Amino acid sequence: MLSIGDKVVYPMHGAGIIEGIEECEVMGETKSYYVLRMPFGGMKVMIPLNNVENIGLREVITQDEVEKVVVVLQSEPEIVTGSWNRRFNANLLKIKSGSIYDVAEIVRNLVLQDRAKKISTGERRLLDTAKQILVSELVLACDKDASSVETWMYEMLDKNTPGN
Predict the structure, then answer these.
(1) How does DSSP classify residue 61?
(2) Spatial separation of the C-alpha atoms in residues 48 and 24, rounded to whole Å
(3) Tens-place pLDDT, residues 77-128
(4) Yes or no: domain 7-59 corresponds to CATH 2.40.10.170
(5) Euclidean distance between the first and final Cα of the chain, in Å?
(6) Which residue among 26, 86, 112, 146 has the highest number of C-beta atoms inside a 10 angstrom radius?
(7) What is the pLDDT of residue 164?
(8) Rounded to the nearest 10 degrees, how much is the dihedral formed by the CA atoms of 154, 42, 99, 4?
């Protein structure tokens, strides 16, 4: 069971900190909710305690697991085939999985693809979402600010760009 102060990841939204547990009545039924504060935009999200398993809420990765993210960012990008539509849907499923490694893979692939040949507007929005999710978790995992994490992430990707 998670508790107040825990750092968690909410798939499709990013990482946050559990600020409290509140009871709310919805349609005559009282339920308990985790109240998450998200570091980006100061957004607060309420998640029903009885739905935590279904939505994939999980704890933020450890420092050791950050090293695995580095490996993903520096590994060979996937060769993407098919229409941008098919790639978009496959990437969206990966983001929904809640896996930071899948999200890091999407960021790596789309950033490097964009450097070689500009990506579509839909893929750009997906990249922005994936970057926000990745950076938000790394901010909490590494105890650094978003700007430092983003700079570090691009340094990892620069090492992975052909010609560097």
Answers:
(1) P
(2) 10
(3) 887 777 778 889 999 999 999 999 999 999 999 999 898 888 889 999 999 9
(4) yes
(5) 46
(6) 112
(7) 56
(8) 130
Interatomic CA distance for residues 55 and 11, integer angstroms = 7
- What is the average pLDDT across 34-38? 93
Smallest CA-to-CA distance from 15 within 141, 144, 108 is with 141
Reading the block at residue 71, the tokens are 């490996």
Query: Domain limits of the chain?
Result: 7-59, 63-159
63-159: CATH topology is Methane Monooxygenase Hydroxylase; Chain G, domain 1 (1.20.58)
- Whether 7-59 shares its CATH topology with 63-159 is answered no
pTM for the model stands at: 0.90
CA distance 148 to 90: 29
Beta strands at 7-10 and 58-59: parallel, antiparallel or unpaired: antiparallel
Share of the chain above pLDDT 90, in %: 66
Return the DSSP state at 12: T
